[in-house]
Amino acid sequence: MQAGGGERIEALTADLCWNDREATEEVTKEDLTVAIAAHPSEPPPVRTGTDVTVWLWGSVWGFDGPAGYSVLDGPAAVECARLYEEHGPEFVGGLNGSFVGVVHDRSEGTVSLFTDRLGSRAVHYYRTDEGVVFSTNVQSLALHPAVETGFDVEYLAEYFSLQRTFGVKTPLEGVERLPPGSITTVSTDGTTMETERYWSPDYDPGDVSRESVSRRLAETLVRAVEERTDPDTEYGLLLSGGSDSRLTLAALRAADRDVQCYHLADWVNPEARTAKRVAEAADAPITLLRRDRDYQARASKRTPRAGNFVGYFNQIHAAGFEGRLREDVEFLFTGHYGDMLFKGNHVPTPRIDVGGFGSFPVPLEERAESVEEYVSGRVSEAPAYVRGALSRGIEEVYAANVSREEEGIVDHGVTYGSLREATVCSRFPLTNGTSQFFYHGTLQTMPSGTLFLDNRLIDLFLSTPVSDLLRGNLIGRAIEHLDPDLAKIPHGSTNVPVSAPFALQHAGRVLTAFRRRHFSGPFEEPHWTAGPWTDHAELIRTHGFVRETIDEHEDLIRSLPFLSWEGVNECYRAHLDGEDNLAALYTLVTFLRMPLTRRLTGEERPATPTA
């Protein structure tokens, strides 16, 4: 979704399309033009009335209003238009869904842009003297003639170092994201722009038992399936050997929904065999989507055009299989964000080094007592290829974007009630986590989503003590509530049942990692592993695509004042010699392949979408 003046809107609309199958729509109302691209099977994204036009990208499942919570059955844009007419702009605060929307109220002379609680679908905007240009795809903004932007070196260095820019900031001058949980109202003459936050996280853990939390988790997921799915629709699920997607499978089966499972792997490894065992126990068919040796090389050329400066190219995990998936199913579920909410995987914890066993996190919260400690826990050193362009280190760059205000802690333009909330609720917005590229990118390929992004589960997370998030095995317990047989099957990374007590889970993870590190293999390919992921660090050393990308873009690298050709080669050589520069190299490859990078140097115009 994007908007701005009508000039050249066709080029921007085409740029929203991932392939040639999307249905596009452009609507011009007075001084406003909005374009949106949607998958053919999705509901109409625009609803036009006498005085109000609503555009919506995403899904809205329910509304929590004065009369309580109700399920919304109609097309999302139609429901939002009705709610706007009944409740005014405040209706957004009651929406349960994953969405971004626009309301044009001609009688009021306003355009309102709204985001869901966590900002799951980012909106990037640029203010001009005459109004606002916005897009859900940051790559498109430079195509608009009113947008005059370039790279902000410090925020770009944050992206290269931390694989994302935090809060509302982006590496583009004059371009920011709309805040999560907000309504931004712009006058149609472009003279005023005001943002109101309708929601922010209030972390208030109560005295609740792990049994109670896990049972509520299970029951809410089943309710979400019943509310958000149709028995006549064909559903798919990316199934790992772990627990988040297994819980999703258990909820789908508990609601009597048929599902086709898919597992991504480089070979038929122990993780793939576990996923097959889980699917068979649920009486669900499963297909292995096997990545060949050149899979990541191909992904590096295609997926960066969906990049929003969050994460890097390999994180749209199933992008190479989208054709097969679209042929088989109408909607693809993932277990995404289950670990974020109910395993506390983003909560800072100390690590211990146990020699040959490796280094492992200790499941105890490491609380920041000062802004300095908070910032220190977020940053890492800038890679060699950008370090020379900075007048100060990344820690100083990050610290300059954090302050204490009356309302609490402001981090990169987003306000939290306290340092604790800024830490525990750090995925407010979701773009604060690099895995948002998986969520955003998968949405481009086909209708998809996760059951875990539900307001009721977010509220449950906010009331759960950190100790239970880290050590409560809440996901495993929830699986046991729904399907004890699935819970008995060992976790792919622990080799103990997912229903086992946390102490056994943790010990099993350590022992399994040790055994795989020292006794597994050698495998047929050096980048293969016994677990769910490719060994990307080894793939870089044994496959030439990163070197080839660097050499292909030598002229571009040398022309950009913030990149050092010598630093790029130093970073690459050091990785070959044993350093772990995976993140720095993959982020660089993503940046070099982004259409926006070429567009800002005047070397590339929009490409024709491909299947």
From TrEMBL:
Pfam families: Asn_synthase (PF00733), GATase_7 (PF13537). Residues 217-421 form the Asparagine synthetase domain. It comes from the Archaea. GO terms for molecular function: asparagine synthase (glutamine-hydrolyzing) activity. GO terms for biological process: asparagine biosynthetic process. Residues 81-141 form the Glutamine amidotransferase type-2 domain. This is Asparagine synthase. It comes from Halalkalicoccus jeotgali (strain DSM 18796 / CECT 7217 / JCM 14584 / KCTC 4019 / B3). The lineage of its organism: Archaea, Methanobacteriati, Methanobacteriota, Stenosarchaea group, Halobacteria.
